[in-house]
Amino acid sequence: MKVIAVILYFLPLVLFSQTSKPNIVFLLVDDVGWGDFGCYGATFNETPNIDKLSKQGMLFTNGYAASTVCSPSRAAILAGKYPAKLHLTDWIGGHNYAYAKLAVPDWNKQLAHKEKLLPEVLKEQGYSTAFFGKWHLMPTNNQNFNEHYPTNHGFNINVGGREWGQPKGRGKYFSPFDMPNLDNGKKNDFLTDKLTNAAITYLDTVSKKDPFLLYFSYYTIHGPVMAPKATVKKYKKKSNTFVNTKNEYVSATRAAMVERLDVSVGKILNKLNTLGIADNTIVILTGDNGGNYDATTNSLRGYKGYAYEGGVREPLLVKWTNNIVPGSRSNVPIMGIDFYPTILDMVGVTNYNAKEIDGESFLPILTGAKSKLKRKSLFWHYPHYHRTKPYGSIVNNNWKLLEFFEDGKLELYNLAIDPNETTNLANTNVAKVRKLKKKLEKWRVSVGAQMMHKNPNYNAAKANLRVK
């Protein structure tokens, strides 16, 4: 009887796939911590729409960004490849520590046109592709600047995407915005709301035409920390009586930014319902790196820019009516590189060069067909200086090894029993360290990772001074 019930539940997938390709709404949040949403433990921030979304599909407890900073993570999502393989390993344009012990390699500060990105593949399949929000995947002040807007990488429409990693218009998060194809609106208009309205207008125009990819890459929650006064006032009042038992990040203005994000998600989901296309639309929500503050990670160690879990563990929610059991949960490790093959798998695209892709489709996890992936390991490579010193890492069957390049220091953690990375086991489990280090080294060779070298300008006295 149970088998019959499962078959009946997933029967609409077969019927739907014969009549209509599913639409895709991909929601990418900037600088969101693993503990920023109610469904991931937040009690100060209020996210009723995102929490509702988590109950309509699958919530992942081990969703990972491909980097601790934004540009590499964003490139990995669109290309389905590790940042190390793309040689795009830092935020564009990165820090310049001229006197550091190691020299940073000559890395790519733009997405190479040779990469066939997810929107380009979908476009070939008849999809309308639209980009809204933060791009940050193009060079700054270079002669080929104009060749790398979203519309040069597979998107039919670009609203707001340029070289900026954060709002830098005259009003920052408020009007005037000074962003491509986004009117400046009127005084006190808020960027998250303005982009949401533009996305909804797009849905109105495209919903009865071709299948679509709506790629909404929010500027929020990245700084500058700004939000509408009325919403900030609400959280200031809440903070006066809030009992912070979980060491949450309590900021009235940032919480207001999170609320406007949540309102945006709610508006988009409501529009899909109003248009009658919600059941045939895949909705994915995740982030590009950890939150920008320590207490945003729901107790995980580190945050944005750090090598630890708080820098890369991300919220990940996926909704696809009739295909994913509502309220389901998974602890399978998923990384940003996996969205490319998964989405193509979802829409039935097989004619792409899967051998070049580093990601693995997790559609079988979503549908319940499988409980784990073939892959055993995930990797990170960060040959740069930021909040952390340069490092590489591997997660393999709940074991995590960190290798810091300056001095070769190794750290080993058992994430199954120590997810907060409090106890370094490198000295007590030498065999595991040796095994994982060998895997990490082999992987670096396989993807052509750029390595660091001794810096001829190294000056210990000046090494910690940031040079821009």
Highlighted features:
468 residues, alpha/beta, nine-stranded mixed beta sheet, four-stranded antiparallel beta sheet, 12 helices, disordered N terminus
Topology:
Elements: H1 2-17, E1 23-29, H2 48-56, E2 58-64, H3 70-79, H4 83-86, E3 102-103, H5 118-124, E4 128-133, E5 157-159, H6 191-206, E6 212-217, H7 229-241, H8 252-274, E7 281-287, H9 309-312, E8 313-319, E9 328-330, E10 334-335, H10 339-346, H11 363-367, E11 377-382, E12 391-396, E13 399-404, E14 410-414, H12 430-447, E15 453-454
Helix pairs in contact: 6-8, 7-8
Notes on the protein architecture:
This protein is α/β, with parallel strands linked by helices and 468 residues long. It contains twelve helices and 15 strands. The strands form three sheets. Strands 1, 2, 4, 5, 6, 7, 8, 9 and 10 form a nine-stranded mixed sheet that branches. Strands 11-12-13-14 form a four-stranded antiparallel sheet, with helices on one face. β12 and β13 (399-404) form a beta hairpin. α6 packs parallel to α8 (252-274) and α7 crosses α8 (252-274). It is globular. The relative contact order is 0.19.
- Helix share, percent: 25-40%
Please give the radius of gyration in angstroms: 22 Å
Report the β-strand fraction as a percent range. Answer: 15-25%
How many DSSP-defined strands?
15
Q: Note the total helix count.
A: 12
* Largest sheet report: 9 strands, mixed
What's the N-to-C terminus distance?
66 Å
> How much is the average pLDDT?
94
Structural class: alpha/beta
Weakly predicted, low-confidence segments: 1-19
